[in-house]
Amino acid sequence: MSAQFLVMGVIWYVVFLFSTVCHEGAHAFAGKLGGDPTAFHGGQASLNPLPHIRRELFGTVIVPIASYFLTHPPWMIGWASAPYDPVWAQRHPRRAAWMALAGPAANFSLMIAAALAIRVGVAMGAFRAPESISSYAQITQASNTASSGAQLAAAALSILFVLNLLLGTFNLLPFPPLDGHNGVTVLMSENTARRFMASTFSGLGFAGLLIAWFVYGKIFAFVYPLALNLLYYPGVHYH
Question: Is 0.85 surpassed by the pTM of this model?
Answer without folding.
Answer: yes
